[in-house]
Specification:
Elements: E1 9-10, E2 13-15, H1 17-26, E3 31-37, H2 43-54, E4 59-62, H3 64-70, E5 79-83, E6 86-87, H4 91-100, E7 106-110, H5 116-128, E8 133-137, H6 146-152, E9 161-164, H7 167-176, E10 180-184, E11 190-191, E12 201-205, H8 214-219, E13 222-225, H9 237-253
Parallel strand pairs: 3-4, 7-8, 7-12, 8-9, 10-12, 10-13, 11-13
Antiparallel strand pairs: 1-6, 2-5, 3-5
Helix pairs in contact: 1-2, 5-6, 5-9
């Protein structure tokens, strides 16, 4: 039974110098063309033009009004990349690939992360560590849009992203497929260093303000924390995920 929405394309424009530059470096295969605002001849624009031409990617000069219409309220610096359409993946396929890849599967679950910048950074972190996929809920959550594409700097094309209708059912499906459901929360007594990560894992990262939702907590086999050493009590979700993922791969490599 399908537990998530069918694959659907979303806006495939990445705005801004840093997002376009990183995409050209790491995901040029996905770039169809680069847009530059007409008469834009800053050093950054020239660098993007050079990089695109070195990769045989067409450069198109657009009226500045096109950028204003395409990216309302989004800093774009007169630079954008047009990429192949982004598609959400199905959870069943992500789980199948993770299990068949050999070793232990690792899927991240973003539990109603509302901030687009945080979601984009989390996607980039997950892709950096080679996670097999990332799950987001359809409601009360950021989705993949131009801001997330920019913040992830093209990483959305390097990790399968699943958007589900019901996060509780998604977690139940993962558990049925022998994934341990592990939540991250600051009050947990078990630390990420005490837990044994050598197993299939679905790691849940909670909302910026509320933390783990009730359905997510109910589904967890274990909840773990990052022990704090200083005066700061909490970390940004993408930073937290990086700390946990680094420990997971340290253990799995030993």
């Amino acid at each position: 039974m399908t537990i998530d929405r069918p694959r659907s394309a979303v806006d495939s424009l990445i705005p801004g110098f840093h997002g376009v530059r990183e995409t050209l470096i790491r995901g040029a295969h996905a770039v169809q063309e680069v847009w530059i605002a007409s008469k834009k001849r800053t050093g950054r624009a020239e660098e993007i033009i050079r990089m695109a031409r070195e990769r045989n990617i067409p450069v198109v000069f657009k009226d500045p009004a096109v950028f204003t219409r395409s990216f309302p309220g989004i800093p774009h610096q007169g630079i954008a990349a047009v990429t192949e359409g982004f598609h959400y993946e199905r959870l069943e396929r992500v789980v199948e690939r993770a299990v068949q890849a050999g070793g232990y599967g690792l899927i991240l679950v973003a539990d109603h992360i509302a901030d687009q910048g945080n979601l984009g950074a989390l996607i980039r972190t997950a892709a950096f560590f080679g996670a097999h996929g990332l799950v987001i809920p359809e409601d009360r959550s950021a989705g993949v849009d131009p801001i997330v594409l920019k913040r992830s700097a093209g990483a959305c094309f390097h990790i399968p992203i699943v958007r589900v209708v019901n996060i509780g059912r998604a977690l139940a499906f993962l558990a049925k497929n022998e994934f341990w459901i592990i939540g991250a929360s600051g009050e947990a007594r078990t630390t990420i260093y005490q837990f044994d990560w050598k197993r299939h894992v679905a790691l849940i990262l909670g909302n910026e303000q509320k933390g783990l939702s009730r359905p997510a907590r109910k589904a967890c086999h274990e909840i773990v924390s990052i022990p704090a050493r200083g005066a700061v009590e909490s970390l940004n979700v993408s930073v937290s995920s990086g700390v946990v993922l680094a420990e997971i791969f340290r253990q799995r490599a030993s």
